[in-house]
Design goal:
By secondary structure, the chain is α+β, with helices and mostly antiparallel strands. The protein is built from 5 helices and 9 strands; from the N terminus they run βααβββββαβαβαβ. A 7-stranded mixed beta sheet has the order 1-4-5-6-7-9-8. Strands 2-3 form a two-stranded antiparallel ribbon.
Length: 193
């Protein structure tokens, strides 16, 4: 079946991410903040995908200087300065539309936007316990390279902010893979993606 896939910058709150990442991962409050972090002048790094008019995917990406270089970051191992990196916060694709290249299409649009801001790459904390380790597999196929692993990345979020991890069934003990995607290493999108 042929589907019509379209993309647009994110301009309103959406909860598709919670279907993938767990309850309270995205809230009206943090989505407002994430949208602020995605904007730099007229450039918007957050994107939505629609299939036949239905919301099918979301990509949240932060502009350089709007995300913290915290204890779960290893800047000494990065090939670029933090000011040259966007931060890939999260991505989610509705299970009904996986396999249509939506995740990669959203990523490429965020990359194109980030390049307008002078970014040479992007950093992400990839959910290593995602079902089938799909997050790591996806980001690796897109050119991401593992920098470091961080245990219990979302523990505090689950304890203090009400995040409910779908893998741990509540309090989160999942690890994050700190991965860096150099924009020179991103495979081109084919018509099959």
């Amino acid at each position: 079946m042929q589907h019509n896939v379209t993309y647009q910058p994110l301009t309103a709150a959406d909860f598709l991410g919670n279907q993938v990442h767990g309850d309270n991962y995205l809230t009206p409050e943090n989505l407002t903040e994430y949208q602020r972090r995605a904007q730099s002048g007229d450039v918007n790094l957050n994107w939505l995908a629609f299939v036949d008019g239905q919301l099918a995917g979301i990509r949240l990406t932060f502009a350089p200087g709007t995300w913290p270089v915290d204890g779960d970051c290893s800047p000494q191992k990065w090939p670029f300065k933090a000011q040259q990196l966007c931060y890939f916060k999260c991505s989610a694709v509705d299970a009904r539309y996986r396999g249509l290249g939506i995740g990669k299409g959203l990523l490429l649009r965020s990359i194109d936007s980030a390049k307008q801001l002078g970014c040479l790459g992007g950093l992400a904390h990839i959910w290593l316990q995602s079902p089938g380790n799909s997050a790591y597999e996806y980001f690796s196929r897109c050119g991401g390279v593992m920098i470091n692993e961080h245990a219990n990345r979302w523990y505090d979020l689950s304890i203090s902010d009400g995040y409910h991890c779908p893998v741990c069934d509540g309090v989160c003990y999942c690890s994050a893979g700190e991965m860096l995607l150099s924009f020179d290493n991103v495979p081109e999108q084919s018509d099959d993606d």
